[in-house]
């Protein structure tokens, strides 16, 4: 699987751009704030319908315009496909595959698997639980349409239950309707918990060896799924803590409060790890993610590297480059001298300057 070409209109700082990609290594270089990351973001957007930055559609559309378009041509199993995405300020986005509009986002998932790696991924390790849940959800939604449906249903029911909790504060007779939402919340919540647990188990099967190699055998890394509540006990805990929910007027129990922990030799990397250790954990996580996606889809994902090489020392850079030999990689950087030094085979080089892309 690889991206053949990208065409964007009124996207961020681009009026219009058409660019083709080699199926191996592609480099976009230029100064900061010229539009390199915007190209990677548009590819990720076409694959997942979401910005890796968490931006809303109206923030992506070029200032002064009402709509934006992305057209991504890909090749998968020797068959070409086209993804068209229409972003609008005042309406939901429209998506078509091979010229046919899709009605549900899930129809897009699995067509193109993309892994995004940027210096901001350090926030997965350093920041609060929401960053780590977002990491889990973005990857799982690409890999499993069923997970997306279960997560989406859980989120909708959670919002409805929270609204009901607020209403009960003013109308106690509505308490009788709470059980209906509890049953549905538990049903979908259990499915989300189970899929997250399976995903973390599969990551753990890979990440320990990767991290051990990156640290010359000094550090053992394990991911711990810090569940807010277990599958089997969810229903009972939700019932027992109803008075807490009524007090806060929001649901305090469920997978929407989950977290994951990265343990280095039994010590929490977020709380006690150095900056260097946290960077290595982030790199181990991405390499494990690449390997896991390969195993699951029996194909290579597309790797988007946003200015990460400058953040890695030579040994860690070498470990990452080893993983990208056989997969399409699109890399942004401020200069590509380092890649020449590393003797990386570069297939395409583009210079990006203020929304203009020139092939070198």
UniProtKB/TrEMBL annotation:
Keywords: ATP-binding, Cytoplasm, DNA damage, DNA repair, DNA replication, DNA-binding, Nucleotide-binding, SOS response
Role description: The RecF protein is involved in DNA metabolism; it is required for DNA replication and normal SOS inducibility. RecF binds preferentially to single-stranded, linear DNA. It also seems to bind ATP.
Family: Belongs to the RecF family.
Gene encoding the protein: recF
PROSITE patterns per the UniProt record, alphabetical: RECF_2 (PS00618)
Protein name, as recorded: DNA replication and repair protein RecF
Cellular component GO terms, alphabetical: cytoplasm
Compartment(s) where it occurs, according to its Swiss-Prot or TrEMBL record: Cytoplasm
Matching InterPro entries: DNA-binding_RecF, DNA-binding_RecF_CS, P-loop_NTPase, RecF/RecN/SMC_N, RecF_2
């Amino acid at each position: 699987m690889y991206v053949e070409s990208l065409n964007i209109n009124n996207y961020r700082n681009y009026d219009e751009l058409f660019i083709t990609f080699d199926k191996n290594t592609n480099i976009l270089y230029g100064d900061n704030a010229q539009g390199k990351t915007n190209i990677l973001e548009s590819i990720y957007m076409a694959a997942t319908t979401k910005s890796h930055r968490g931006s809303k559609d109206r923030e992506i559309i070029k200032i002064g315009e009402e709509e934006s378009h992305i057209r991504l041509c890909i090749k998968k199993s020797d068959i070409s496909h086209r993804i068209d995405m229409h972003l609008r300020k005042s309406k939901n986005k429209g998506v078509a595959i091979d010229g046919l509009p899709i009605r549900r986002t899930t129809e897009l998932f699995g067509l193109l698997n993309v892994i995004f790696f940027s210096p901001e991924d350090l926030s997965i390790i350093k920041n609060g639980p929401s960053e780590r849940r977002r990491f889990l959800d973005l990857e799982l939604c690409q890999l499993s349409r069923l997970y997306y449906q279960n997560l989406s249903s859980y989120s909708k029911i959670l919002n409805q239950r929270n609204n009901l909790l607020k209403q009960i504060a003013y109308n106690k007779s509505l308490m009788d309707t709470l059980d209906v939402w509890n049953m549905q919340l538990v049903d979908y919540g259990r499915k989300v918990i189970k899929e997250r647990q399976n995903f973390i188990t599969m990551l753990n099967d890979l990440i320990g060896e990767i991290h051990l190699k990156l640290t010359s055998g000094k550090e053992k890394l394990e991911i711990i799924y810090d569940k807010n509540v277990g599958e089997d006990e969810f229903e009972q805990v939700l019932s027992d803590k109803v008075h807490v929910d009524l007090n806060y007027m929001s649901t305090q129990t469920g997978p929407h409060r989950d977290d994951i922990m990265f343990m280095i030799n039994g010590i929490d990397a977020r709380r006690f790890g150095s900056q260097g250790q946290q960077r290595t954990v982030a790199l181990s996580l991405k390499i494990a993610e690449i390997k896991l996606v390969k195993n699951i889809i029996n194909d290579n994902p597309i790797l988007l590297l946003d200015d990460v090489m400058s953040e890695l020392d030579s040994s860690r850079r070498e470990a990452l480059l080893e993983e990208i030999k056989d997969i399409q990689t699109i890399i942004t950087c401020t200069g590509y001298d380092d890649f020449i030094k590393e003797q990386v085979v570069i297939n395409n080089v583009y210079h990006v300057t203020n929304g203009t892309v020139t092939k070198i």
